[in-house]
Amino acid sequence: MEIILAKSAGFCFGVKRALEMVQKALQDRSAPVFCLGPLIHNPAVVEELEQNGLQVIDNIRNLPAGRLVIRSHGVGPGVYREAAAQNLEIVDATCPFVKNVQQLAVFLVDQGYQVIIFGEKEHAEVAGVLESVGGNAFVIHGQEALPESGIGPKVGVISQTTQDIAGYQRLVSELIAQTKEVRVFNTICLATSQRQQEAAELSKKVDIMIVVGGRNSANTKRLTEISQASGTPTHQVESSNELKPEWFEGVQQVGVTAGASTPDHQIDEVIQKIRNLGGKQAVSAESIETKEN
Ligand code: F3S
User: Which residues are involved in binding dimethylallyl diphosphate (predicted)?
Assistant: First the structure.
């Protein structure tokens, strides 16, 4: 059984950067380090950080003096205000690509556009972008209908960084058919679109796909959906313990990919377990392509 690992599986730039910032902050034991929500959508990594002293909190009211980590998903202006009022030192790990989405939302509102955000309303990133414009934007997810209140003459569109490009293109085409001016920014991050494209290509070549990553990680879920859409049996797992031997019966080729918040050691453990179930040494999807070209 051949194991093919997607080229860009695992940590993205924004997650690596956030982890490094937190690890650095934790080295200085002079003040507590708080994180508003789990740093990344990966329970094992979060647990390890907590063991090293990170305190995950769900609101910042009445904190003692210390440092507050803003996650790569970013937050709205309210958290910065509240943190300043409490004299908390900010460790701002907002991914620069997410900051860009927030700034574009503000720009579009200032320019008089009706803003539409393509993304999940409950996701922290989208909540932060919405708050940046005082809630003055519509959020549309997947194939949801356009706002009932109607589309104005000038529409500005941005996307949550981890959404899929095909869905975004669908929404933009629908908008173009309905109004005169549509200003679109492609804010889907390159790491995300590459990973999704690779998942789509790899899943078409293999008999089964394994997607490694946190169950509440939006970008991991998207990889699973993309793989499933190609008709290949796809299983999303958080750890190697969840792999079931029967998934691999009669399988010749296994594709493996992982979300942006999945550390290399979790991917390695999954690959090792598949090897124990009869898999050969894993090869990168890159080397497969090179062989074919
Ligand atoms: Fe940033 Fe893209 Fe990762 S937006 S956090 S580099 S998935």
Answer: 41, 73, 123, 217, 219, 261
